[in-house]
Amino acid sequence: MTFRRNLQRHLASIGLLIFLAGLIAASDTLHGKTEAIVVWIENLIAQAPVLGMLAFLLLAMLSAMVAFFSSALLAPVAIYAWGKAACFALLWCGWFLGGIASYCVGRYLGRAVASNIIGDDKITAWEGRVSEHTRFVQILFFQAVVPSEIPGYVLGVLRYRLALYLLALGITELPYAIATVYLGDSFLRGEGAVFILLGLGVIALAAFVVQIQRRLSRQLSQNDGGDDRSHDGHDHDG
User: Fold this and answer.
1) Residue ranges per domain, the chain?
2) Cα(166)–Cα(53) distance, rounded to whole angstroms?
3) How far, in whole angstroms, is CA 7 from its chain's centroid?
4) Which of 18, 177, 195, 211 has the largest count of CB atoms under 10 Å?
5) What's the pLDDT tens digit per position in 101-112?
6) Cα–Cα distance between 102 and 96 in angstroms, integer?
């Protein structure tokens, strides 16, 4: 199944990045060189702190809209420059704004523009799984387990209710922002083993959520049966 393979690849890529970062953190030589880069960037930020925060916020926002990089890679710099609380706030706000922007692109600029950004195959693949009438709990799992650049565009194209999407977005980004901050802090401290364990814990949690989502989808499909014909009647309120 394409959905399952895509999620497995997504989790595998996260696992590989965490493993490599853990190796760097555990190596005195590599960690020392990385720390020197972090200090150098922090010195640049210190010259224009407000601009630095704005740049990090915009990068976090962009990372929630496109797949070519992750703002989590910059978390150690943000923690070093502003502390863990500020890093968490900037990450969560950036990801939240990115989700809003991607939803607006899908809803108001249309499928053609969204397809150019994330690929029409991704939108097509998810159209059969979610719709404007999908229950909130399913959207919550969808937002939690799918790469962050996908849900906003898909739900925007499908015209899912904005309020429910924003609620799901805000809830699901919280644990990821917390995990990213603690992983970044562990990396700065050179705690390679802790970093890897925390990362693996995040992956295990994501895999667990995938299993719950699959079971929930099967149960809802079995319970709904032929209810698809009456979607316009009552599911919009569910």
Assistant:
1) 2-223
2) 23
3) 13
4) 195
5) 999 999 999 889
6) 10
